[in-house]
Here is the input.
Amino acid sequence: MNRAESTFVQKACAYLTRPTGELLVFESPEHDGLQIPKGTVESGETPREAVFREVAEESGLGAFGEVRQLASDVWLRRDSRWYVRHFFHSVVHDAPDSWTHTITDGGGEDGLEFEFSWVDPATAGAFALDLDEYVDLLYPHPA
Here is the structure.
């Protein structure tokens, strides 16, 4: 199947950072490597709305700062599925150093437990599903 014949699934991806610059990540039993909160944009929902919903569903965090969009791309997964990924950033001021959250949304991940923690993105290494693609946009670059 080529791109023209494919369905493009919309995804919302959240880079959540502490004021110190640490990035929220989790590990799941489904993929090797670190991940960020993310998920499919539902019918009638904008990617921005989806990022709020996905963060709440996957991490349990219900409040975070202003959200800004960093980038969007078209990404081919190894199983030949195309995704339009929308990456957003927000700062989180009140969250524990680490926690476990159980998904209870009734969807395909229902019952899974995600172990959340904060990492220095500069030393974290590669993330699962190329989710670290735009981490460098979080921080100002020297001129």
Summary: The radius of gyration is 15 Å. The helical segments are 47-59.
